[in-house]
Amino acid sequence: MPVLRLHNSLSGEKEEFRPINPKRVTMYACGPTVYSFAHIGNARMAVSFDLLNRVLRHLYPRVTYVSNITDVDDKIMAASKDTGEAIDVITRRYEKIYNSDMKKLGVRKPDVQPRATEHILEMIAIISMLIAKKHAYEQDGHVLFDVNSYPGYGVLSKRLQEDQIAGSRVDVGLYKKNSADFVLWKPSTPDQPGWDSPWGRGRPGWHIECSAMAEKHLGLPFDIHGGGADLKFPHHENEIAQSCCAHGHETDPRAFARMWVHNGFVTVAGEKMSKSLGNFLLAHDLLKDHPGEVLRLALLAAHYRQPLDWTENGLHQARKNLDTLYRALDVLSDVPDGDAVVHHGVMAALCDDLNMPLALAALLALAKDANRADLSESEKIAIKASLKGTGALLGLLQQDPKTWFQGGAANDDDAEIDALLKERTEARKNKDFKRADEIRDLFAAKGIEIEDTPTGPKWRRAVK
């Protein structure tokens, strides 16, 4: 079996992946907060960990992949106040949209997709253990983790305690002993969602959610924890602190998760994505204008740990590469299907810290081989089987080539286009170039592109 090596953010090094139990690999990745549509940064995380999930399933007999839904959060409450809609109405709607959009991107739904609101008792149990072990304290209706009680704080982000300042979702409150202390439980007003607890009616802090859900559904320790690089501090740092301290493993951060995997940031044409700059791109909107596979490949274009700059050129390159791959399958359309296999060069690249750019290069080289004139029948069968098997692993090449080039599901005018294409072929054969040009102009008006190939002319709907 190929050896999978992954960059472990905890050690800062690329390590051989050695599952705790080779018969059941366990992985957790932080999912969305469902108060609005997912942006392409969210989509990159989902696609990156879907790829890792697929690779793990290829290598091991069983994988349990958990990715949560955060459905209690200040942003959700703000959305409820702004719209007048009930919180559960908002969260269920955007959870459904998120799953639908990710499915269009080829993302398989996790084995378990727990909601935070369904794990309040588990969160209360962990908080109680932290208070009992003197790692947390109650103050003014809040329960906070005492960062000074845990000398290992900063082990993941490599931040020294004196460098730990308030960041994203870090509240500097008067009720804190230390500005770096983070909220485990906070009080709720009558108009806010809340649950009864030993510290009064309230709701959980953000960080405790993932600790509780990961522990319940995977057990401790588990193999891989992941998410976007923006979550490394403070969210993932705090997960390690509270989970390890609750269970008496203050000196062993691997007692929570053995490996930490983080995908890089997404910029748009070189700029940080921001609503104020007008470049805040939503996956839901992009899917209206581009096939899901194009967006998926564009999100995988850069190595997952590296920054990804989202550009129109990148989208067109992804489409061009997919056209090349589908064209190879089209050339082999009359070749019998063999047993699907994964191309060895692609698998070797993926086992080297999910090196997708190298994997894509190997797959495109295989597609080029499909056009060789000297192929035997057995070689054609082998190439087709490798293209289809590798495509299935990558979440690509999931359509029939004709469907791909003709823009998806059949349209009412497909028969007319086929007839015109046939007429154009006859006109060119008879040297009636005037009629051939007229048909070409008709195609252009319909947004149809024609490509003359060795096996005859093909048409497709132009990319928007």
Could you characterize what this model shows?
With 464 residues, the protein is an alpha/beta fold. The chain has 3 domains: 5-263, Rossmann fold (3-Layer(aba) Sandwich), CATH 3.40.50.620; 268-405, Isoleucyl-tRNA Synthetase, Domain 1, CATH 1.10.730; 414-461, no CATH class. 43% of the residues lie in helices and 15% in strands. The protein has 15 helices and 15 strands. It has a 4-stranded parallel beta sheet, sandwiched between helices. A 4-stranded antiparallel beta sheet has the order 5-6-7-8. Strands 12-11-13 form a 3-stranded mixed beta sheet. Helix 4 (120-132) packs across helix 6 (232-246), helix 5 (206-218) crosses helix 6 (232-246) and helix 8 (292-299) packs across helix 9. The longest helix has 20 residues, at 40-59. The two termini are 43 Å apart.
Structure characteristics:
elongated, Isoleucyl-tRNA Synthetase, Domain 1, 15 helices, single chain, alpha/beta, 43% helix, Rossmann fold, 3 domains, 4-stranded antiparallel beta sheet, 464 residues, 4-stranded parallel beta sheet
Q: Could you outline the blueprint of secondary structure elements for this entry?
A:
Blueprint: E1 5-8, E2 13-16, E3 25-29, H1 40-59, E4 63-67, H2 74-83, H3 87-104, H4 120-132, E5 136-139, E6 142-145, E7 182-187, E8 202-204, H5 206-218, E9 222-228, H6 232-246, E10 257-263, E11 266-268, E12 271-272, H7 283-289, H8 292-299, E13 308-310, H9 312-331, H10 344-351, H11 356-369, H12 377-394, H13 401-405, H14 414-429, H15 433-445, E14 448-453, E15 456-461
Parallel strand pairs: 3-4, 3-9, 9-10, 11-13
Antiparallel strand pairs: 1-2, 5-6, 6-7, 7-8, 11-12, 14-15
Helix pairs in contact: 4-5, 4-6, 5-6, 8-9, 9-11, 10-11, 11-12, 14-15
